[in-house]
Structure formats: structure tokens, C-alpha cells
Design goal:
Length: 313
Amino acid sequence: MKTYFPFFRGKQNELMAMRELAERIAVSRNLVPIIEPVNSNSTTGISLDRYMEVSMPFLFVCNPSHGQFAQQANSLFTQIISEGLMEYDNWTPAFQVRRDTSSGEFGAFLARYQAFDVAVIYQGLPIDSGVRALLSNAEIVHHVFLEDRVDTSYINSIEESDRVMVRDRFIRQARNADYPDREFFSDMNTIAGNPQGLDFGDFSIVGDHYAETGGPAYAVTVHHINFRNQAGPLDISHFISDRTETTADSPGKLLEALNKLVAALDNLYPNNTEACGEYRDMGHAQISRGLGYMKRLAIKHHLELMLDGGIQL
């Protein structure tokens, strides 16, 4: 079975969704999160401690593009990596290469993590011939290709077993009210959509989008990934609050969207995940736990789906 690599920025609800499933992810061995750390708060530390406690595998971006550690690889190493990860065996240091990456930068990364298997995430193909030589000769266990960042001929030069193909499957709308009821999400989890049988990933229901905080919402939308039928390709359903004209009463609007999801769950598969149980409990009690918590549940449900038969390769 191939491996699914969901790509998450290390914000609170992303980290907590993985934390709640850390033991199951560790046992599965066919789901390996990619984590780009964005701050050094207690949620980050507690989450990493939990991942290490249960031996959960993950790729950890050592030169983040976003958040507190953007362009601060040495600070990240001092504040987080050297405090525990260097003694942990079941993680993979990952380096993001870009067109302007220098051989000095990449060489320093390889030297720092020479005791580990390492991964490379392609934000672009470096023009520095020294970097290209290191990419060819270094012991790199995962070449993670973000969609449309590198030409196909280069991708084809990498062994298929070492490739991870990551695509942003979330089609972001300018307004929450504009999401359709349901749309295609991915078929990379199937032979039809992934005939080469490559490892693959996406950015779940968040998309390749980073913002420190969200603005006030006129409409509240709950995103929910499900099989198109009872197996096979994945769709994403969007449940939108009835009220969409003002920013007032976000908790009430969240319940409007939640009630629509709960009403639809029996006809969406799978519908027996832990996250689905929480949706039903909140719907029954008419409790609104906030937009961040709903994002956490949506991510958790997606991960549960992939852990429980979503990878059909």
C-alpha cells in the first residue's frame, strides 16, 4: 500500500487533529504528515512530545516559509529541533528548495542532519548547479513535488519509489457563501487517478494557504471530505449557514451549517469516524464549539478516512 502525506502548517487545530490520532497514525505506517512549524507555543511542544511518545512518523520542515520561523532555520533548530527531535528516530528532516537555493544553504542542511534520512520539498528547481548535484547524490528518501513547481522531465528522473506528489485539492472561494454543495476533491487515492501508484498528498480542507488569523465571516461553512460513493474517488461537501449577509452571530451560523452536515451524514461515507460522532453529539446538544474546533474535526475526519481504507492503491 502506498503512503499518504498530508501537508499541514503547524497551527493549533492542525497539530491537535494529528495529536488526537497520533497513535493510530503510528500504527498504520501508511500515513506520514508533513509539518511546517509556524510558532514555538505550548501547543507545538505538547504535540511534538505526543508524536514522539507514540513513535508517530512525520516529515518536519526545517526551513519554513511561514510564521515565526520563516527564514529562521537556526532559530527553529535552537528552539524546537535541538530540544528533543535530534534524539528521536522516527522523523524525517525536510528542506524546501527553491530556484534561488544556494549550495551553501542546502549543504548546511545535509551536514546538520547527516545522521538522518532526509526529504526535499520542491518549491522550485534550484538553478545553482551545486544544489542540483547534491540533489542527485545525497541520500534523499522522499522527493516531495508540489504541483506545477518543477518540470516533468526532472520529476521523471527521480525513482518512482522516492516521489511524493502533492497537490492543493481545496478550491478556495473568496466568500464562504460561494462554495458549491459538493465537488470533486481527489482520485489520487485510486488506481484510476494514480496509475503509477505513487505516494501522494494534499493540504486537506485548509489548502495551500496560510494566514495568522481569519477575518469576520458573513457565512460559516463546514467542509467535509467523503467518498463519491462508498469507496473510490473523494469529493468534498460544503455546508453553509442560512444567514450570509452580516458578520453577526457566528456561533448561531455555525450551528446552522452543522445541522445541515448532521442531516446529511447518513448518506455520506464514511460516517462512523470519531469526528462524525462529535458532529452528531454537538448537533444533538446544539453546542457551538467555534470555527477552529470545526476545522480540527474536519481535518481529523479526513485523516480518519485515509487511515480506514481511503488509500486504495
